[in-house]
């Protein structure tokens, strides 16, 4: 074997190099993880942190394996967590295999990759890397790397929240931006760092005292850390509404409990800062939602705890052991949210995270996965308490206490609240570091598994094979990680550019990471935009281009659905694409849209949106039919779907309006008026509904004279947002219909009052003015009719419409 890999007792250069790389990679992770972001990718800063973590962990793994090759021996420390962590890994694997969305469970969803099976594997590698390579010298490097990262992150975040922007990038030019993620997650991170900062001050004082320069350096660093602790408290003060104070207090209480009981010893003077921090946190808690300084941060929304628990229970009924699969809470939410959620202000929001990871774990990885997490937590808690209580290594105990206290803050928040992916990452990192500190601080030495390759040539060959296999695997994974980042870089470049350039970038993103369904979705929507833009050119529009854009939109939308067949968002998007295609008379488009909306109702049975879309599709089918019998059949189907939408959300005004129009088409004016009246009651500020109510009263009042006012408004897309998008049409009456005089009956009086009310609110409401003119023309009051037609002439800008109004005035 080459001398470079010699198994001599003295450390070879390669072994020392590998140890340096291991130290560097872990130190960089601890320093950069909270701080790192570039703003160059589409999925956001959590994705960037995970990619950084992923690449550094793989680099550390290569160094660890290479060290074992060079030394001829690989030592693996056996800990009490090995079996439960291994069991959790098996459970996650099985859950991913049987997941409702295998791709998401294995690699994560777009923008949320920290809860996938692959992420767990990376956490596991980091755990092994830290636990098996910890020593006292590295411990100090890791601790100060963590502190330095915290100081830098807190300083930068405080400036951001205060409106002082250091970086020129567009994404950083707002107070809501911070390197952790959401404002609540920033509050969690800062609260978690308080025990470490309180600990860092006395430790900094104890640093190098052998020279004057060393003393000055220690004093300077102590001042920086102490200032950072005060700034952290000030930042929590600014983030008051986003901080879960009980968890922050719990972390400091654990820290002080061991300090004041002398289980972990510090000098009396060194307890001053921890006590001050603890009292400040108590003051913030008792003070409540005070804000002497208003940071004007945007409100954050999350799922309620009660609904999270209900969803977890319903999901467990379906699959109690394995759950729906890692990272698939979005599936569980839309499936089991219930119709009661439709009466909240957030009824049209699809949540992908529960209110607390405990409920989310029950829904996604079942009883077995959740139990494994609880067991891991309890075992870690017990061995930490043993290490703190019985160990004689005073300095390591101090380090362990600080890291463990911080971990408790993070874990408590994650278990009970909605947190960003960066907090999940930090839990994995600090949890691994806590176990590593236990290893070197535990009163009894843990068992070791030694893989020695010195005994015979065959073991040396086995070592070489392992080295080559692991190296090749790491190279593949490292390259894959780089490609994933590059693909999202391309996707981000597609934002804010012209359509042709955006298509080019999205195609590059797909070519680089073809498993990402979001890229296909964005591309399909972009093709629809390009088709509509081309169609808006009128006579000069290129029909072939429109058809090509529509075909491309459908193909890419189908690809997204194929990748994640149980995704409501993907199927709903494809259905909308087919709806758009139907407006260009693409054969079969309405049928395909109906098919996918039906599948959406199966995946999301309690959301009224898809039922409204199905009703609109049936109304469109009716418009295409010539025979009255076929038309009425589709109108009846539309009424059925509108009824289902109303059964899911009884205060959905667009559904009442839609069902009223369907009843009108069936000449059931009494029912139509009743239904649109409900829409007006629910949306009192909607003048369009109010006008439609007046129009229906007018039509019922004059139907014996065969005079009818046409529907002027139509519900369009965006029913998924619970909004009514109105498309303006021509004035609502055909001019040849206004020749007969009728009595000013009760229905016409009601219509007259409604139209006048609309004009009071909106004096330039053209259709209301036109309708009033028509009423008075119909009952023979020519002077009043002329007055309203005159007002209408001052408003209308369309020349053909003006000419039609002039003809009416001349005929009066």
TrEMBL record:
Keyword tags: Membrane, TPR repeat, Transmembrane, Transmembrane helix
Q: Which SMART domains match?
A: TPR
Cited Pfam families: TPR_8 (PF13181)
Chain ranges passing through the membrane: 21-45, 51-69, 81-100, 112-130, 142-166, 186-205, 217-237, 243-260, 272-293, 362-386, 398-417, 423-440, 461-486
Which SUPFAM superfamilies is this protein grouped with? TPR-like
Note the segments forming the TPR repeats: 653-686, 766-799
The protein's matches in Gene3D superfamilies, at most eight in alphabetical order, are given as:
Tetratricopeptide repeat domain
Question: Could you tell me what this protein is called?
Answer: Uncharacterized protein
Q: Which organism is it from?
A: Candidatus Falkowbacteria bacterium RIFCSPLOWO2_12_FULL_45_10
């Amino acid at each position: 074997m080459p001398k470079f890999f010699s198994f001599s007792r003295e450390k070879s250069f390669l072994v020392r190099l590998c140890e340096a790389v291991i130290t560097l990679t872990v130190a960089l992770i601890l320093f950069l993880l909270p701080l790192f972001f570039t703003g160059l990718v589409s999925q956001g800063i959590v994705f960037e942190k995970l990619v950084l973590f992923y690449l550094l962990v793989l680099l550390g793994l290569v160094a660890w394996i290479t060290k074992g090759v060079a030394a001829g021996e690989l030592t693996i420390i056996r800990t009490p967590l090995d079996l439960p962590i291994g069991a959790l890994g098996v459970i996650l694997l099985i859950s991913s295999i049987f997941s409702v969305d295998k791709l998401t469970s294995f690699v994560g969803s777009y923008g949320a990759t920290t809860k996938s099976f692959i992420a767990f594997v990376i956490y596991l590698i980091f755990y092994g890397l830290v636990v098996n390579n910890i020593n006292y010298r590295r411990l100090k490097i890791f601790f100060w790397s963590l502190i330095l990262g915290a100081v830098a992150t807190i300083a930068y975040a405080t400036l951001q929240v205060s409106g002082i922007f250091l970086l020129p990038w567009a994404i950083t030019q707002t107070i809501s931006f911070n390197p952790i993620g959401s404002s609540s997650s920033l509050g969690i991170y800062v609260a978690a760092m308080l025990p470490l900062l309180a600990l860092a001050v006395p430790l900094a004082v104890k640093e190098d005292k052998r020279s004057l320069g060393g003393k000055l350096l220690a004093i300077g660093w102590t001042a920086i850390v102490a200032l950072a602790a005060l700034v952290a408290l000030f930042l929590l003060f600014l983030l008051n509404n986003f901080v879960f104070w009980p968890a922050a207090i719990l972390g400091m209480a654990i820290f002080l409990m061991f300090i004041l009981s002398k289980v972990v010893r510090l000098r009396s003077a060194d307890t001053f800062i921890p006590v001050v921090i603890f009292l400040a946190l108590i003051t913030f808690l008792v003070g409540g939602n005070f804000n002497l300084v208003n940071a004007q941060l945007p409100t954050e929304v999350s799922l309620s705890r009660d609904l999270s628990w209900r969803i977890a229970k319903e999901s467990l009924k379906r699959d109690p052991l394995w759950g729906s699969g890692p990272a698939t809470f979005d599936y569980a939410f839309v499936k089991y949210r219930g119709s009661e959620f439709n009466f909240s202000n957030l009824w049209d929001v699809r949540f992908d995270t529960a209110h607390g990871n405990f409920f989310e774990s029950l829904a996604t990885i079942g009883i077995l996965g959740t139990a494994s997490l609880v067991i891991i937590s309890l075992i870690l808690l017990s061995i930490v308490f043993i290490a703190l209580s019985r160990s004689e290594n005073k300095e390591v105990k101090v380090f362990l206490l600080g890291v463990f206290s911080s971990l408790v803050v993070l874990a408590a928040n994650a278990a009970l609240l909605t947190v960003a992916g960066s907090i999940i990452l930090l839990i994995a990192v600090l949890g691994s570091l806590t176990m590593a500190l236990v290893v070197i601080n535990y009163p009894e030495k843990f068992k070791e598994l030694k893989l020695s390759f010195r005994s015979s040539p065959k073991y040396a060959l086995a070592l070489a094979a392992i080295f080559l296999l692991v190296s090749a695997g790491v190279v593949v994974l490292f390259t894959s990680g780089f490609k994933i980042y590059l693909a999202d870089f391309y996707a981000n470049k597609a934002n804010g550019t012209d359509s042709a350039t955006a298509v080019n970038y999205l195609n590059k993103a797909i070519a680089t990471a073809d498993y990402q369904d979001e890229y296909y979705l964005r591309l399909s929507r972009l093709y629809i935009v390009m088709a509509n833009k081309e169609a808006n050119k009128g006579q000069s529009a290129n029909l072939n281009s429109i058809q090509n854009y529509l075909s491309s939109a459908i193909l890419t939308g189908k690809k997204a659905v194929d990748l994640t067949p149980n995704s409501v968002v993907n199927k709903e998007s494809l259905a909308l694409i087919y709806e758009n295609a139907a407006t260009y008379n693409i054969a079969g488009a309405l049928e395909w849209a109906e098919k996918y909306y039906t599948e959406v109702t199966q995946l999301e049975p309690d959301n009224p949106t898809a039922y409204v879309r199905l009703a609109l599709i049936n109304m469109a089918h009716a418009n295409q039919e010539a025979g009255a019998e076929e038309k009425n059949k589709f109108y009846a189907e539309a009424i059925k779907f509108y009824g289902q939408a109303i059964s899911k959300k009884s205060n959905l005004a667009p559904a009442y309006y839609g069902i009223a129009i369907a009843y009108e088409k069936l000449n059931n004016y009494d029912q139509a008026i009743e239904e649109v009246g409900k829409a007006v009651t629910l949306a009192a500020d909607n003048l369009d509904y109010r006008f439609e109510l007046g129009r229906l009263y007018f039509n019922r009042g004059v139907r014996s004279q065969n005079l009818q006012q046409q529907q002027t408004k139509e519900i369009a897309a965006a029913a998924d947002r619970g909004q009514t998008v109105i498309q303006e049409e021509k004035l609502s009456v055909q001019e040849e219909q206004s020749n007969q005089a009728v009595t000013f009956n009760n229905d016409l009086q009601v219509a007259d009052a409604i139209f006048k009310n609309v004009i009071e609110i909106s004096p330039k409401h053209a259709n209301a003015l036109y309708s009033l003119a028509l009423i008075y023309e119909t009952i023979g009051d020519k002077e009043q009719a002329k007055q309203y037609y005159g007002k209408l002439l001052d408003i209308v800008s369309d020349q053909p419409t003006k000419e039609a109004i002039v003809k009416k005035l001349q005929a009066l």
